Every structure is written in structure tokens, then in C-alpha cells.
Amino acid sequence: MSDVITQPTIRQLRQRVFALSWPVVAETTLQLSLDLVNTALVVALGTAALAGVGAAMQLMAFALAILAALAMGAAILVAHATGARDLARASTIARQAIVWAGILAAPLTVAGFFGAGPIVGIFGLDATASGLGADYLRISMGTVFVLVALAVGSSVLRGSGDTRTPMRAILVANGLNVVLAWALIGGHLGLPALGVTGAAIATLISRLVALVIVGDALWRGPVNLRTRTGWRPRWTEGRELLGLGTPAALEQVAISLGWLGFTIVVGHMGTEELAVQRMATSIMSIATLTALGLQLATTTLVGQALGAGDPRTASRLAAITTRWALVLVTAIAGGLWFAAEPVVRLLVGGAEPELLKLGVDTLRMTLILQPFWAVTMVQSGALRGMRDTVSPLLVEASANWLAAGMAGWLVFRQGASLPQAWGAYLVVAPFLVGVMVARQLRRGRRLNAEHAAAGRPALVGRDASPEGEPGVPAAACPAD
């Protein structure tokens, strides 16, 4: 082994970040359009339908957070194995992640299918909205394994460096969903008019198609499923997956519970406020999901660099993705701020002026938060790539609950409006950013110190070696 590891140049790192991250950003943005299309089409069914579907989607987000352990654990472990060029181990992790996804999805499927009505009832909506939300949740939760398997499979591919296949899969699913949702909600193309139920069915079929595309790539790719062995649940891999992923899942559960609490507070403000909340969060997600895409890419990039034994490159990659997230999200949020009124008018149609103003004010308040959240999310992705999933759990979950509690106090004790309630998150956001940046920098310094203390090859220079870039192995390059 060489006694030095030559560092890649900043230009090479940026090229690597761009090649891996743009498909992930595109994928997460396309994921949003599934909900946006359904939201736009459901608006025509009335405020009750929009509020019901919004409540059901919030509950789905909570349920999926429970299963996030497998997807996150698989992404981290596959990224490290790929960086170390151990594709056999990466393939084993992929198979076990799918197996454990089925095991953990089973009880949620039963609970969602048979308990949809009482579960949606916690939002305190009127009978019509609750019934529509239960119809949507019953189909979505009853087939949750499809969504979980798609998430796990996509995470495995991203961890291996193939970020384009998940993007292609969701692109196909989006096109199909637009047609099916339009046809099944309103009764076109000879199909029955199923309303809210039609939206759920369209999403299910679209995700099934995406799962087939992802499954085909996993069957034929270097990190693959094509073997009869390794399909029985093994606690060794399960413990490793859950050990890394459980803090990430608990983080998502805690954050989702915080959002659920905030949504319940908004639900008690009124059906119109809950409908506006659903609309505003859907629009702001255009910016949020850009940051999410860079977060996922950062986990892969940092994990692969560390798997290759190059912590310095890992830290440099995290710095690049953080700057990119801040610039991109600020630009997107700024554009949406100035376009807030026409965008809201497009979604609410001929609503009363008071409802239009409430929508614009709420949307603009959520957009102010986006640069703060972008930095926080990418720092969280870097920490996960460094195999630290506990810090994001403690910091982000605590901040979310604090903000949700403040919002509840503002609404119930001070009579605050919906935009004012969102101000609680703005108060907490700067402190959240500061803590997450400090944690990531401290973790990076520790890994570099451990690397030096272990007597591993020195990290020198800024030119790439002829053999390739350390920390970004050829096996991890995205598939064409």
C-alpha cells in the first residue's frame, strides 16, 4: 500500500458532487410532484377533500419515518462498502434491507388498513373530511410495503453511486401518476370517478412501476439481488442496519410527531387553515426537497470517502454540498416569495380574498425558513455519512418539538394566526444551524485525528492521482 493518499482538486470534487447530486435533487423534486399533482386535482373536490388528504399524508409521513431506519442504514453501509470496493458485502446489505423492510412493514399495513378511521379522527376534522382522509389512508397504508421497498431499493442504489436509476424510476412514475390521477379522480378515459380514493390508487400504481424499474437495476447491477441465498432474515445484518438506522428513524419519528402536533394545532384552528397549511407545505417543499436531495447525496459522498479511508476528502465534500444547498435553496425560496400570490391563486382558484391572503402570508413565512433548514439538512447528511446518526436525532428532534410547542402556545394562549404560529420555527432555526455545523466540524476533526493516530496513509497534496480520486472510487460512479 502507498504511504500517501493524494487529495483530489476542488474542481474534481465539485464535478463529483455535481455528477452524484443532480439526479438526487431531480428525484426528490419529482417525488414532490406526485403530491403536488394529487393536491392540485383534489382541490377541485373541495376544502374537505383537501384537508382530509392533507391529514392522511401527514400520518403516512409519520408511518414511513418508522421505517426510515432500513433505508438510512442501507444507504450508509452500502456507501462505505462501495468506497472500500467490497461489492459482495454491499449486495448482502441490500438483500437484508429488503427482507427487514417486509418484516417491519407488516404491522403498519394491518394498523393502517383496519384503523384508518379512528387514526384520522385525531385531527378533529368534520365527518366529511375525516371520511375522505380515512379512505386515502386505508389504501396508502394498506400497501405501505411498496413505498418502503422503493425507498430501500433507491437508497441502496444511491449508496452504491447510482443516483440516475431512482431518478428515472420516479420520472416514469410521475408521468403515469398525472394521467391516472386525472382519470381516476374525475372519471375520464372510461374509468370510474373515485375522487380521493382514485388519487390514492393512482399513486400506488405509479410507485409499483417505479419499484419494478429500481428492482431491475438491483437485479442486474454490481450491487445486486440476483441470488437465492441471503434472503432469510439475519440478525447480524439486521442489527447493523437498525443500529445505524434506528437513530435516523427515531429522528424522523420525533420530527413527524412534532409536525403532527403542529398539524393538529392547525386543524383546531379550522378546516380552511388546515387546507392552507397543506397547500403551503406542498409549495415550500420545492425548496426543501432540493436540500433533501443534497442531504442524501452528501451521505453517499461522505460515506464512500470514509470507506476509502479518506476523511479529509469527506470533510471537503460536506463543505461543498453545504454551500451549494444554501445558494440553491435561497434562490428557489426567493423566487417563490415573489411569485407567492399567483402560485397560491393557481391552487385555490376563486377562493375568498381572506383565504388567498392567508395562503400567501403563510407561504412566505415558510419560505424564510428554507435557507436555515437547507444547511441543517446537509450537515445532518454529512454526519450520517460519518456514521453518526445520533447527533441529528438529538438536535433536530429537540428543535422541532420546541418550535411546535411554541406554536401551540402562540395559537391557544395568544390567539396567533397561522403565519404567526410559523414564526416559532423561525425563532428556533438559527440556533439549530449553529449546533449542527459545530457537531459536523467536530466529528470531521475527530475522524481525521483517528486516521492519523492509526498510522494510515498520509493525506497530502491537492492533485488527483493517475489511478483516480481517493474517496470517490470508480465503482461508485453513477451509471449512464
Query: What's the average pLDDT?
Result: 81
Strand content: under 5%
Can you count the helices? 15
Number of domains: 1
Poorly predicted parts: 458-480
Give the class from helix and strand content and strand pairing. Answer: mainly alpha
Write the element-wise H/E pattern from the N-terminal end onward: EHHHHHHHHHHHHHHHE
Rg calculated over all Cα atoms: 22 Å
Count of β-strands: 2
Distance between the termini: 31 Å
**Main sheet overview:** 2 strands, parallel
Q: Rough shape?
A: globular
Percent helix, as a range, is over 70%
Describe this entry's structure for a reader.
The structure is a single chain. The chain is an all-alpha fold and 480 residues long. It has one domain (4-476). The protein has 15 helices and two strands. It has a two-stranded parallel sheet with strand order 1-2. It is globular, with a radius of gyration of 22 Å. Mean pLDDT is 81; it is low at 458-480.
